[in-house]
Design a protein that fits this description.
InterPro entries: Homeodomain-like_sf, HTH-type_TetR-like_transc_reg, HTH_TetR. By secondary structure, this protein is mainly alpha-helical. 69% of the residues lie in helices and 0% in strands. The chain has two domains: 7-64, Arc Repressor Mutant, subunit A (Orthogonal Bundle); 73-236, Tetracycline Repressor, domain 2, CATH 1.10.357. It has helices at residues 9-37, 46-53, 57-63, 67-89, 97-114, 116-122, 136-159, 169-185, 194-214, 226-236.
Length: 238
């Protein structure tokens, strides 16, 4: 291959790789948007996705091995977006334990209500890079449980208490919240409003965390600013 003054073979390959990544991203985004607009239970049309993305169907198939790969990448995209949103609400630098939990549960409730087609789609299969035995919702729950586990472990370390007391908490809480919200959303006429569901799940999570903390001698006010709680508990243990 001849290489002109405009750049090397390596540079050309890098630009082409970047172009392909951008094209795949645009196609996935178009597919996700189209999915949300489609009626519940309808099949996603590859032709419709290609038209929405502004590419030929043959181009779409060059970027993806088939519809299965496209759908896996769509699930990866949705899981990444929702995971990032939930993680942002788990920011411990602002708010009390109760408010941190409440805003995280709230954003999940809002997401599930506002994006029913995405929620339904995630339950239909794995992501692109995920465990083949897990659907995308299960992968997301595992991801959030691990994130919460890391947070609790760092808190236990800061307070110099046994982290094992908190080990069962993350997955139990994540599973409880997701299952409760999923059941509530699928009711034809829910008796409890969204605010009550969020409040109840927040209270239950606080009770669980409080019980785990008390088992290692930590008693704290869940309504006090969390950073202040940490400072107070750490000072009292000196």
């Amino acid at each position: 291959m001849c290489v002109g003054k405009s750049g090397s073979v390596t540079g050309y390959a890098a630009r082409w790789a970047t172009h392909n990544v951008e094209r795949r991203t645009a196609i996935v985004q178009a597919a996700v948007e189209l999915l949300e607009e489609s009626p519940a239970g309808t099949e996603l049309s590859v032709r419709a996705v290609a038209e929405r993305a502004g590419v030929a169907k043959s181009v779409l198939y060059r970027q993806f091995g088939g519809k299965d790969e496209l759908e896996r990448r769509m699930r990866s995209h949705i899981v990444d977006e929702l995971g990032a949103l939930l993680t942002s609400k788990l920011d411990l630098s602002t708010g009390s334990v109760r408010s941190i939990i409440s805003r995280t549960v709230q954003v999940l409730a809002d997401w599930m209500i506002e994006h029913p087609r995405w929620d339904e789609f995630l339950r239909g299969g794995p992501t692109f890079d995920g465990d083949e035995s897990l659907d995308a919702v299960s992968e997301l729950k595992l991801r959030m449980a691990r994130r919460s586990e890391a947070i609790l472990a760092s808190i236990a370390d800061a307070l110099d208490v046994d982290p094992q007391a908190f080990e069962p908490v993350p997955y139990a809480v994540v599973t409880m919240v997701e299952a409760t919200m999923s059941t509530w959303i699928r009711q034809d006429a829910p008796e409890r409003p969204r605010s009550r569901i969020v409040s109840d799940l927040t209270d239950l999570t606080v009770y669980i965390l409080d019980g785990a903390a008390r088992s290692v001698g930590v008693v704290a006010d869940p309504d006090e600013e969390f950073t202040a709680v940490l400072q107070s508990v750490a000072k009292s243990s000196e």
